[in-house]
Amino acid sequence: MKIKVLTIYLAFIFTIVLQNIYFIGFNQFFLFSIIATSLILLEKEKRIYFLFFMIPFRSSLPFNLINIFIFFLILFTSKIKYSRMFILALVIIIIEVFTAIESNNIFDSVRFLTTLLTVFLIAKLPSKHYYISGKKLAFYYSLGFVISGLLYLIVFSSFFNIHLLFNGQLRLGSISPQLIEIFPNYNYFLNYNANEIGINSIFSMIFLIYNFRKSIGFYIFFLLSFILGILTFSRTFFLCLFVLLIYLFFRFFKKFAFFSKVIFLTSVFSMIIIFLNFFNFEVFRVIYDRFLSSSSDLRIEILIGYYNNWDFSNAFFGKGAINYIYFYNQEFSMHNGFFEIFLSYGFFGIILFLTTLFYLWRMSKNDNLMKVTILIFILSILFHQFLGSTQLIYIFSIFLILVKNLIYNSFYAYKHLTKKYLSH
Question: What is the pLDDT of residues 37-91, one digit of tens each?
Fold first, then answer.
């Protein structure tokens, strides 16, 4: 069984390498058929892990078709109990359908809804039939991101001088439009956005911490995630990284004396400075310029534009996650997850979302890493969209499953101890 699973993963990576490095284009229906067959051959829980491994590669895949396929595959092969979650999903479907018909933007709404409904199904998979591990999902997502990020870096070095990244003249992810110009007919090239890489980097580091091992492989993948994030010069990445470093400091060095901590941090900082100077990496200047750039003013202008066109009649149920840009006659989406949810689903959506965040925080109990993860997630969507971002929707589902595992494990431990106590 392990050989079959490993073969599927290696075949998938080999196909992506042929697409992105050797530029061998595959018929997308052929590629979809191969992946669909692989999903059928895998066992139930392994299908979900493979899906999360594929998510960082989604721009090189017919991912919309894959999403629809696995939605129906889970729906017809699992005993899902209908609950409040599906009632809420039904409300969202109704809002999207009405706004899609009015805006004539049905395809994008279907794409969004299949993503959202797939996440709902995965989060509701019953533990009695098979157990989905949140830690495993997190690991496979991180693994997929690191491999896809390295492939993207190799492609970059094929067309641009790699030193343009190390001296801050280009951001990793900012050259996607230029690559599309080079390959105008190549629709399934790894097409990463700098902010997406930055957010994926920070969550890849967090998810690897969930799967912490004292092994060289762990440290290599963690370092690669860190480097890929640095090369984006994403402001969101650096803000989230600051929070993560504070957590790591207190988690891993709390047993050390204060003097030892100072020596360690000074040594690490000195090594980073030497590394940056070796590559002529003007990282501090570039980061400083990024935080003072005019793009911050542009986001404020976008907010003002939506405010000027806002109508109280949209306050309760909004105008749909995909279609609110059309109804507000704006060119750009809202680069703030909370405002985006409010514009999409009004007070109904924002109250539901905040309630879910509060529930996750409360159920995390003494799990400080989970609380830091939720805090970083909140920080990341303050400067980035949420509903319009496939990877963030799936990342959020990992939180749901991690908390579900936490509750399930606590209940199982309580039940086991109670049974053991009563037997005596």
Answer: 999 988 888 999 999 999 999 888 998 889 989 988 888 887 766 666 677 777 8
Total-model pTM: 0.85
Q: Which pLDDT tens digit goes with each residue over 9-20?
A: 999 999 999 988
Q: Which two tokens stand for residue 409?
A: 């494990």
Report the alpha-carbon distance of residue 35 to residue 125 in Å, rounded. Answer: 22
Query: The dihedral of CA 268, 273, 278, 280: what is its sign?
Result: positive
Own/partner pairs, 379-382, CB within 8 angstroms, 24+ separation: 379/236, 379/239, 379/240, 379/243, 380/199, 380/202, 380/236, 380/240, 380/337, 381/336, 381/337, 381/338, 382/336, 382/337, 382/338
Cα four-point dihedral sign 356, 362, 367, 368:
positive
Relative orientation angle of helices 44-54 and 2-20, to the nearest 10 degrees: 20
* Cα torsion through 361, 366, 372, 373, rounded to 10: -60
Quote the CA–CA distance of 291 and 9 in Å, as a whole number.
Answer: 40
Under a CB-based contact definition with an 8 Å cutoff, are residues 202 and 229 in contact? yes
Say how far apart CA 424 and CA 422 lie, in whole Å: 5
Of residues 384, 396, 386, the one with CA closest to residue 194: 384
